[in-house]
Amino acid sequence: MRPIYLLNVILLFFCITLKPTLSQASHVRAGEITTKRTSRTALTYEITFTAYFDETPGGKLAADAANSYTICFGDGTTAVVERSQRIFINRNTSSINTYKTVHTYPGPGTYTIGITVVNRNNNTLNLPPAGQSERLPFFVSTTISINAALLANSTPVMLNPPLDSGRVGQKFCHNPAAFDADGDSLAYRLSVPKTSPTENSCTGRNIPSYQNPTQFSTASENGGTPTFSINPITGELCWDAPGQTGQFNFAFIIEEWRNGVLIGEITRDMQIIVVDSPNKRPLIQPIPDLCVEAGALITQPITATDPDGQRVIIAGFGGVFNIGADRLPLPANELIPPAYARLINGDIIQNQPATATFSWQTSCNQIRQAPYDVTFKVTDVPTRPTPALTSFQTFRIQIVGPSIKNLTARPTATANGRAIQLSWSPYSCGNPGTFISIYRKEGCEDVPPEPCVTGVPAGYVQIARVPITATTYTDTSSLRRGIAYAYRLVAVYPDVNGGSNGGVSLASNQACLNLPLLAPVITQVTVDSTREVNGQITVRWTRPIGLNPGDLGGPYQYRLQRATGLTGTDFSPLATINTTLSPTAADTLFVDRGTSTSTLNTTANPYRYRIEFFYTDPATGQLTRLDVTEAASSVRLSATPANRQVTLSWQANVPWSNDARVHDVYRSRSGPNGPFNKIREVTVQTQPYSFTDDGTDTFTADGNTSRVLSADSSYCYRVMTRGQYTDTQLARLGVLLN
């Protein structure tokens, strides 16, 4: 009986001593939390904690025991989550461990998901005191925003395990190869490793004793000042350069942005082990960014060398491969729609210089606003026990939608008047949810878009959008005769969640058209007499420039209409003038003196005119309206007196431009009937135009009337504007005086 008793004592002793050993064991090298919304109706998320464990003899025992952890969901609830996967990598010295659960949130909001692992690795030099770093719990968190506008949002995933070694005096870099399946923009920034007060705490805090790795450096790889930084665009984190051997911890945050709004953050806390060896890191030749139209085959050689002449392995990471951090294929469409990229001669040992070929047959399914980042990693293969070293290059690929082809424009007419019909070829990248936006501008200047710049050039305004299946559109919106209209089209793509931030295509060719001038054009609306009752305005116009006598059917008719105000739209009939369009007929002028029922008060009001043009329909013999001119107003002048000066302001609402020209200012001391002397030629810019008269007469050809303006005197002013139509068809009309 005594031997059995002793055996029980021994077993009991081992059971008692084993548990503390496990609880203080060091095994966590890195970790992060990712999320994926699994329902479009419920706020249900798949939440994954990915942990990278040390599987060497010093950490394997604790890694074996790490079967579950408590995840805090950020809404006041927690759950114990079992390990669902453990994959050994790096010759079984490390493992990727997955803890996955599903959680439904109670409502929209911002939630911080956190997890605590009891102990960090001991002897982490930049978490002093180094011999007690195992007493610091490991804490990581991820913040997500939940609202209806984000639909089925997922956090980015990191596809490159954080398990590379560094060497004293050599620049160390790590790139997480982050990828966002939703096409959101990613930004990177450094952070501080966090700890928590208790084993299952849901609250993390920065480790107060954390030291920047540069405090353990003496110089950069090139002998300069050491640095520790992260590229905010590519996510490449570099320590240039470690100055002593040992293990170090640091953290960084990936920000997720959509339409300029921060919608989430994910933290990776990772460890690097620095050794001292004669090995030098391999290098990858720089790879220029690339932009291609969807449907193009990308074939990009990747070349790597090693300064020590050692063999190397070239590997590729990124969503375009649809391969996880464990290098196993992911389910179809997990990260991108097929086809997936391949790295030919990748992940194999090669003599240096080594070459691999990145190959990707792109398609319309892969169009998105955000570029695709592909991270290439080269690892040397030194003889044991020398640790391998790595280098990275980021290859940025922008896939843009092809332009809409063969856009044309032709004049037409509808029951509502003038129109322009656009036609184009069926679009080749018409994915579900895509639509076509139609843009227009005035003027035919064709500025070719920059290569690979999507969307329309500056100056265009969106006038319509149509289904992706459409091949025609009739524009009837505010078209004016004599104006050249240019059109471009783009396709607008949905994002993967059904939103509209999937980007736009390259712009179509420009189609430009001058509407035929089948109507007269007003050239003058000038005030002859400024009076409250019997004012007088002269209106002049051209015959239809694009119409000859005998075209359509004569006789023809002008119907002049008038409205009150610069922007008046209540037009009333004023005069009817029959015409044969004979060039010698005096039928393109009308002097408006008002009527018995509508006096002309040119003192108080500007007036606006337009002309309807009629032809005789040969089939019916009836006068039929063909078109109507753009309305043109008289010039409206106002005066504001001040101390020995008068400020004038004037404007006109006309279809031609009076901008950037010389206008004449006249002054009289004898009342509104004159005589008037020209006192200044004023160079104006844009409306309203202005000039301040201080009494000086700078135009002396008609006499010098300079004087000091007196407060007890009255002064009358007139302004003559100069303008011109901007359309090339009407430029021959020359300068228009009003």
UniProtKB/TrEMBL annotation:
List residues of the PKD domain: 68-119
SUPFAM superfamilies listed in its UniProt record: PKD domain (SSF49299)
Q: Which InterPro entries match?
A: Ig-like_fold (IPR013783), PKD_dom (IPR000601), PKD_dom_sf (IPR035986)
UniProt superkingdom: Bacteria
Entries under Gene3D superfamilies matching the protein: Immunoglobulins (2.60.40.10)
The name this protein carries in UniProt is: PKD domain-containing protein
